[in-house]
Design brief:
Layout (H helix, E strand, L loop, with lengths): L2 H7 L13 H12 L10 E6 L2 H10 L11 E8 H34 L3 E2 L7 H8 L5 E10 L13 H4 L12
Antiparallel strand pairs: 1-2, 2-4, 3-4
Helix pairs in contact: 2-4, 3-5
Length: 179
Amino acid sequence: MDVLEAIRRRRSIRKFKKDPIPEEHLRIILEAAIWAPSAGNLQPWEFIIIKSQEKKRAIAKAALNQFFIAEAPIVIVVCANVMRTASVYGERGAKLYCIQDTAAAIQNLLLAACALGYGTCWVGAFRDNEVRRILNIPSEIKPVAIIPLGVPAESPEPRRRIPLERVVFFESYGNLGRP
């Protein structure tokens, strides 16, 4: 399978089977996440693994009642250690780099899960303070995403993409010509 084919296979999954995820697969998925690039190699990502049904339900409620989250056997809350990046890059590190770095780790996680046959959904809509409270997350750690993980119980069709010809510019913004 070529790279594009593998990437195109990934979907946002909102229905999961109850099948458990072997620990070795979870470890591979998390290992893929930590191999993402990061500013200054500071690696600000941190992961909270949730298996408790009670906590999964609480997280789903904090995610604006997206209760499909609680159906997944595992939920991963991906956080950014803001101070780790800010200590080197100041405000730009705190507000931008740590989020970019964590997003790269999340994408690696999603693709690794897909390669192993699992489904995920990148959930960014949630009440930060509620998630912090449920998981006892300190103030210098920012929850960035909630990722339900499990065997897919659905097979959604691919979503439309804006063609490259409309989003790639050459030499300056708006120049749709060829290089």
